[in-house]
Amino acid sequence: MKVHVYSKKGCKSCKYLEKYLKESHPEAAYSKTDITENPEMISKYGIKTTPTIILEGKTGEIKKLSGFNIFTTEILDNVLKKNS
């Protein structure tokens, strides 16, 4: 399971997401991409808000999450625990 986080500088929700991943899922490896430095990612993945999280399995994209809230954490908890 690959976790890709698309964020931007100054995004408070992005900082909370990063803290959540480090504290709740320290075993989860994830990549972080700043969309202001990589604007081509916006159209490539249809990013409309930050953070955008793409959970990718062996066969490709399996889930795209926008924003950081209680629903995001529930989905991340389920997927990451299942794949750890």
Order of helices and strands: EHEHEEH
- The level of helicity is 25-40%
Question: What is the SS-derived class?
Answer: alpha+beta
- Number of β-strand runs: 4
Report how far apart the termini are: 8 Å
Overall outline: globular
Q: How many helices does DSSP assign?
A: 3
Gyration radius over CA: 12 Å
- Biggest pleated sheet: 4 strands, mixed
Strand order of the largest sheet: 2-1-3-4
Mean pLDDT level = 92
Query: Any low-confidence stretches, pLDDT <50, length ≥5?
Result: none
Strand-residue proportion: 25-35%
Describe the protein in words:
The chain has 84 residues and is an alpha+beta fold. It has helices at residues 12-24, 40-45, 70-82, and strands at residues 2-7, 30-34, 52-57, 60-66. It has a four-stranded mixed sheet with strand order 2-1-3-4, with no helix packed on it. A hairpin with a 2-residue loop joins strand 3 (52-57) and strand 4. The longest helix is centred in the N-terminal third of the chain and has 13 residues, at 12-24.
Q: How are the elements arranged and paired?
A:
Elements: E1 2-7, H1 12-24, E2 30-34, H2 40-45, E3 52-57, E4 60-66, H3 70-82
Question: What descriptive keywords fit this protein?
Answer:
single chain, 84 residues, alpha+beta, 4-stranded mixed beta sheet, 3 helices, 4 strands, 38% helix
Compact summary:
With 84 residues, the protein is of the alpha+beta class. Helix content is 38%, strand content 29%. The protein has helices at residues 12-24, 40-45, 70-82; strands spanning 2-7, 30-34, 52-57, 60-66.
